[in-house]
C-alpha cells in the first residue's frame, strides 16, 4: 500500500521513485535514502521473466511499501529488438534497465516525485553496470539527468537532483566493483537481516529458459500462456505450431494443473508426470509423437500402456508406446539435453 503520509519530516521536498528488484543492492539504495530522510517510492516492475515472489518477500521482510507495475507488454516488445545485444543468455540488461527507468520516469507525475534512484553499482555487472553501459541506460531511458545511483553516485557525473540540492552529495557513496563486502556491512548498519541471494531473480539469465524463449520467439508464439509455460517442465518442439510440456516433479505437475489448460495428458493406471499439449495437434502423426514422448517418462508403466487426454470435461483413453531416447532428445528444447 502506498503511504499517503505527507508530513514535512523529509530532508527534501522532492521525492524519488526507486527501481526495486528485491535484491540486496536495490534494498540498500531504498533503505539508505530513507534512513537519510528522503522520501522514496519503491516500484517493482513485473515481467514474465521475473517471478515477483522474491521481491514481494524481500519488501515484506524489510518493511517496504511496494508499488507494483506490470510492464510485460512493453518488455516483450523490447525483447523483439533490443538496441544493445543480449547478455550471456537472453538477458538484454541494458535495454531492460533503460525500459524500467523510462517507465519509472513516466510515473513521476503520477506520484508527484521528481527523480529516480536505483541500486546499480559501478562495475558490478559485466553487461549493464559498466560505466559506459550505465551511461547508455541513462540515454536510452530518456531520463538520464534525473537518475541518482546512491551506492555509486560519487563516481558518476552529478545529475540534476544533486546539482539542484534535492539530494545532498554528502549522502552519496562510492561503491564499485563486484565485491559485496561494503554492501554486507551496510546491510548490517541498516538493520537488513533478510535479503535474497544474488542469483535466481531473472529467468532470462537461465540458459535453459533462454533456449525455450528463443524457440518461442522463433516461432512467433509469445502469447502470455506460452510464456507462463516456459517456467515449468521439459519442453519439446514437435512442429512449428505444437509443443509438448512434461512436468519434472510433483511441484511442477501441480503448477501445470493449476493453469487449467485445455489439453492435458495423464497416465490412466499408474503415477507419472503430467503432459500438456500446446495447442492440441490436428495431425495424427504429431499426436502419436507426443504420446510416445510423454510415455517415455513413465518408466514403470507397461509398454504399450493406457493414458488419457483431458480436454475440459472430456476424457479420452489413448494407447501410448514409449519413444526411444534418441527421439526424445531430438525434440527436446534444451542446450544440455537431459532426460
Ligand atoms: S537480469 Fe533480467 S531483469 Fe535484470 S536487467 Fe537483466 S534482463 Fe532485466
Model description:
The chain is α/β, with parallel strands linked by helices and 339 residues long. It has 2 domains: 187 residues, 3-Layer(aba) Sandwich (Rossmann fold), CATH 3.40.50.620; 126 residues, no CATH class. 35% of the residues lie in helices and 15% in strands. It has 13 helices and 11 strands. A 6-stranded antiparallel beta sheet has the order 6-7-9-8-10-11, with helices on both faces. α1 links the parallel β1 and β2. α4 packs across α6. 40% of the residues are buried. The chain binds iron/sulfur cluster.
Catalogue the ligands: iron/sulfur cluster
Please tell me the CATH architecture of the largest domain by its name. Answer: 3-Layer(aba) Sandwich
In CATH, the topology of the largest domain is named: Rossmann fold
Using the CA coordinates, give the radius of gyration: 24 Å
Quickly describe the structure.
The chain is an alpha/beta fold and 339 residues long. The chain has two domains: 15-201, HUPs (Rossmann fold), CATH 3.40.50; 206-331, no CATH class. Helices cover 35% and strands 15% of the residues.
Amino acid at each position: 500500500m502506498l503511504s499517503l503520509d505527507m508530513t514535512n519530516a523529509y530532508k527534501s521536498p522532492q521525492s524519488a521513485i526507486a527501481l526495486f528488484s528485491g535484491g540486496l543492492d536495490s534494498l540498500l539504495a531504498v533503505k539508505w535514502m530513507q534512513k537519510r530522510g528522503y522520501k522514496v517510492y519503491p516500484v517493482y516492475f513485473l515481467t514474465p521473466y521475473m517471478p515477483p515472489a522474491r521481491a514481494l518477500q524481500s519488501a515484506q521482510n524489510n518493511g517496504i511499501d511496494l508499488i507494483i507495475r506490470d510492464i510485460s507488454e512493453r518488455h516483450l516488445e523490447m525483447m523483439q529488438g533490443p538496441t544493445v545485444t543480449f547478455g550471456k543468455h537472453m538477458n538484454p540488461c541494458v535495454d531492460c534497465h533503460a525500459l524500467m527507468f523510462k517507465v519509472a520516469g513516466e510515473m513521476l507525475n503520477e506520484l508527484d516525485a521528481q527523480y529516480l534512484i536505483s541500486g546499480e553499482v559501478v562495475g558490478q555487472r559485466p553487461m549493464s553496470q559498466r560505466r559506459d553501459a550505465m551511461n547508455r541506460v541513462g540515454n536510452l531511458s530518456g531520463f538520464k539527468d534525473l537518475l541518482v545511483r546512491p551506492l555509486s553516485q560519487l563516481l558518476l557525473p552529478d545529475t540534476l537532483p544533486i546539482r539542484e540540492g534535492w539530494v545532498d552529495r554528502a549522502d552519496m557513496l562510492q561503491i564499485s566493483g563486484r565485491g559485496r563486502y561494503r554492501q554486507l556491512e551496510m546491510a548490517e548498519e541498516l538493520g537488513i537481516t533478510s535479503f535474497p541471494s544474488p542469483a535466481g531473480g531473472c529467468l532470462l539469465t537461465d540458459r535453459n529458459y533462454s533456449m525455450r524463449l528463443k524457440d518461442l520467439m522463433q516461432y512467433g508464439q509469445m502469447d502470455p500462456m506460452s510464456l507462463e509455460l516456459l517456467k515449468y517442465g521439459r519442453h519439446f518442439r514437435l512442429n512449428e505450431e505444437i509443443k509438448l510440456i512434461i512436468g519434472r516433479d510433483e511441484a511442477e505437475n501441480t503448477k501445470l494443473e493449476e493453469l487449467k489448460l485445455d489439453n492435458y495428458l495423464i497416465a490412466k493406471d499408474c503415477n507419472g508426470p503430467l503432459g500438456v499439449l500446446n495447442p492440441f495437434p490436428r495431425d495424427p502423426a504429431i499426436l502419436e509423437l507426443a504420446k510416445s514422448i510423454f510415455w517415455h517418462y513413465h518408466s514403470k508403466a507397461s509398454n504399450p500402456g493406457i493414458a488419457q487426454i483431458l480436454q475440459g470435461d472430456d476424457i479420452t483413453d489413448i494407447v501410448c508406446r514409449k519413444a526411444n531416447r534418441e527421439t526424445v532428445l531430438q525434440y527436446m528444447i534444451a542446450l544440455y539435453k537431459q532426460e
